[in-house]
Structures are given as structure tokens and as C-alpha cells.
Design brief:
By secondary structure, this protein is of the alpha+beta class. About 30% of the residues lie in helices and about 25% in strands. It has helices at about 20-30, 75-80, 115-125, 135-145, 150, 175-185, 200-210, 230-235; strands at about 1-5, 40-45, 50-55, 60-65, 70-75, 105-110, 155-165, 195, 220-225. The strands form three sheets. A four-stranded antiparallel beta sheet has the order 4-3-6-7. Strands 8-2-9 form a three-stranded antiparallel beta sheet, with helices on both faces. Strand 3 (about 50-55) and strand 4 form a beta hairpin. The longest helix has 14 residues, at about 20-30. The radius of gyration is 19 Å and the shape is globular. The relative contact order is 0.22. It binds 2-(butylsulfanyl)adenosine (IVH). 2-(butylsulfanyl)adenosine binds near residues 45, 109 and 161. 2-(butylsulfanyl)adenosine binds next to strand 2.
Length: about 250
Amino acid sequence: SPLAHLTPMLSLENVFSWEEMQNYLERIQKMLHTQNHLSFIGEPKLDGLSIELIYENGLLIGASTRGDGLIGEDVTLNIRTIKSIPLSVQDSANHHHIVLPPSFRVRGEVIMLKDDFIAMNRERKQHNETPFANPRNAAAGSLRQLDPSVTAHRPLQAFFYFLVNYEPLVFPTQESILKTLQSLGFPVNPMIRLLGTPEEISAYYQWMQESREKCAYEMDGIVLKINDTPLWTKLGTTAKAPRWAI
Ligand code: IVH
């Protein structure tokens, strides 16, 4: 059944060379009337399925796929079978001082590890079942199962990177969003870094390219997000994608 997103789940603009990246950096500096380097959060672009989780009074009450960005497919029962996804979250007494709002949503990516995908396909072939084409299709197929007990036996993982409708808390940076997600018990990707200069962005890209083969899961690029969230509001979004990420 369909499930609506309160804020649209947008897409991302791409650049395919360092030259295009520099053009992007210059363009947003101009839009923000600054000569200073902007700080970015670098994240691996995971090749999986984007999902949104809905929490009310600390309990996971809903989950949906991206769909057309406005309305997704309800996959709540299947999401509940993924062990690393918290069914409930609590105000933690740690130094981040979290005050949980009655309702919030969390966004991230459901993936399947390369090794799990290979093992699963081997088993499917033995049972004369059609193998999946790639880990992404395997994750998608597993999440769209009609029977949650089938999904429960599929080796799905997830990483989260975004909090929406988290009033009245306001997060000053993407870094603080990720820290909060982590302290609430959501898996956050360990290869995420804060990048302060174009040189650091370039080095991060290089590092991810070198890590790609040996990485346990597939990535199809890196995502760069301006760290300061007030700049997100200033830059805004196009119909398709935010200007503060690339
Ligand atoms: S941010 C608000 N971060 O890429 C900007 N997306 O092309 C959009 N994706 O639908 C989301 N890893 O499925 C973001 N670290 C990451 C991501 C990521 C993978 C996917 C996501 C989204 C698509 C946009």
C-alpha cells in the first residue's frame, strides 16, 4: 500500500570530473556571496534502496520506499525484520543531550553485502530459483517480499544519513545529524568524513576510489553535502535535487 512522505525524497545532481566539481564549488560560492571554502560532509553513495522510517513516541511505526519521491510503498513489516534497525529509540543520557520529539522520520539506504549476495545467489541456483542480477536488485527484491518471514531470512543491512521532521530540535550541521542518528542507535557509515577544503574533497574521492574494490558493499560514487544546515535553506532545491549536495 502507498505511504506518503511529509517532505519529498529528492534525487541528486551529478558531476563526472574534477573540473565539473570545481565549477559546482564556484557556483555555490557565488550564490552564497562568499570567497571562503565551504565545509562538506563526504559520504559513500551506497548502491541500495532508499527508505524512510517513521518513529512515533520512540517506536518504529512505519517504513516506506522512495517511490516517486512523494509517495512510496509501505514496507513496514519487512523493515521490522532487519536486525540493525532499531524498533524503539530512547532519549539517551549522553553528552549529545537528545530531546526526542513525539514524531520524526529517518532516511537511509538498505543494502546487501557483496559476500551475502554471492552466497544467496549460490543457494538460489541450487534450488533452481532465478539468481538476482546484483546486490541492489537482491536488496530490492528482498524488501518487496509479500511475506515478511521471507525477508527475515535475507541478509539485509542499512545505513542512515538524514533526520526529517525532527522538531523542535534544530541541527546546525550534517555532522550533528549523523552524531544524533548514531547515538539513537542507527547504523551510520564509518567512511563518512568532514572535508574543509577542495584538496580534502579530492583526497576523499581518491580514497573512496581505492577502497571501492575491497569494500564489503557496492557504492556508485560519493555524496558531498554542505555541512552547515542554514546554508541548505539559503541554497534551496531545484525541482529534482538540493543545491547543497552533489
Ligand atoms: S542524500 C537529499 N546520501 O542516492 C539528497 N543519498 O540520487 C538525496 N544515496 O535516493 C539523498 N547514498 O537512494 C544521500 N549517502 C547518501 C546516499 C544517497 C546513496 C542514494 C539515495 C537517493 C539517491 C539520490
